[in-house]
Amino acid sequence: MIGASLPSPTVAVWHLGPVPIRAYALCIVVGIVLGVWIAERRWRARGGRDDFILDVAVWAVPLGVVGARLYHVLTSPEAYFGAGGDPVRALYVWEGGLGIWGAIAGGALGAWIACRRAGYRFLPLADAMAPGLLVAQACGRWGNWFNNELYGRATDLPWALEVHRWDEAAGRAVTDASGAPVVVGTFHPTFLYESLWCLLVAAVIVLLDRRVQLRHGQAFFLYVALYCLGRSVFEALRIDTANEIAGLRVNQWVAGIIFLAALAAFVRSRRVNAGRGEVLERVPSSELPAATTPGGDTATQTGGPTVTASADRPSPDRDERPDAKES
After folding, report:
1. Please, are residues 35 and 132 in contact by the beta-carbon 8 Å criterion?
2. How many CA atoms lie within 13 A of 171 on its CB side?
3. Low-confidence ranges of the chain (pLDDT < 50)
4. Is 121 exposed, middle or buried (CB count within 10 Å of its CB: 0-12, 13-18, 19+)?
């Protein structure tokens, strides 16, 4: 059935002189570029500052990579700190091994820092970024295809993935005496399942956001919940080595717990947040010196952007404080 299977690359690293060009890294970079572009469009549509998403990326991307690697190393420590392990290889991000849960946590921390520095609330930003994050993940999964890794159980389905015996150090398939790549079998292409699922969830979020006007935080929490739902299924298909708890892979437990938490947060956001509204900048009251106008009203003066909000409809994107004054 190999003739009816999907092919896998035999090379995942090319050399430009002494510089290695790794397909895994290229897939991640393409995903980041597409994710930032989509987030920028959604952020501008909500009234956000045009260049703010790039500011977010400066914080979110490196912290996301660090978080992703930390999660992988902490949940698979034997390869680095066990018998025969090499701790230095924990730094070899280009060889694969990035945990999505750590990436989301680290990236969210970076985005939160950027929001605090610029004076934006976090949830509207997270909503704007959710579909782009899913597209970025969909692109990143193709790095696993290039590396011939993280495939599922053996199968002879027409869309089965042909997998080669792989030399991780060289970044290419092992060859036999005749120079032909060694094929170990055909397996479920879990990378493809997850990539398509991410694109489907992104489309669902965009459609719902247009049809039913999701409240603050709901697009982001829906992204997390639906991704976890699909990931738990794909994780069950995978046969790569992983630590288990009570017969389930650690990632399945993590997916289940985060799914329940995201689902609860999605429901709560519907009750707590009044509506989507436009994105406005928040200026801390401590930075707004008060000034008395000729009419006796109190006004604020600041060198930054002016923020206004209707008295009968406070913006849900501002921090409401009893002592805050608006110009």
Report:
1. yes
2. 17
3. 1-2, 277-278, 280-281, 283-327
4. buried
The total number of residues shown for the chain amounts to 327
Q: Give the pTM.
A: 0.79
Q: Which residue has the tokens 């009750």?
A: 271
Tokens (6 digits) for 163: 């997998």
**Residues 197-217: pLDDT tens digits?**
999 999 999 999 888 878 889
Which residues face 167 on adjacent strands? Answer: 172
The residue type at 154: A
Tokens of 32: 């980041």
Contact 13, 171 (CB under 8 A): yes
Kindly report the three-state secondary structure assignment for every residue of the chain. CHHHCECCCCECEEEECCEEEEHHHHHHHHHHHHHHHHHHHHHHHCCCCCCHHHHHHHHHHHHHHHHHHHHHHHHCCHHHHCCCCCHHHHHCHHHCCCCHHHHHHHHHHHHHHHHHHHCCCHHHHHHHHHHHHHHHHHHHCHHHHHCCCCCECECCCCCCEEEECEECCCCEECECCCCCECEEEEECCHHHHHHHHHHHHHHHHHHHHHHCCCCCCHHHHHHHHHHHHHHHHHHHHECCCCCEECCEEHHHHHHHHHHHHHHHHHHHHHHHCCCCCCCCCCCCHHHCCEEECCCCCEEECCCCCCCCCECCECCCCCCCCCCCCCC
Q: Is the CB of residue 242 less than 8 Å from the CB of residue 252?
A: no
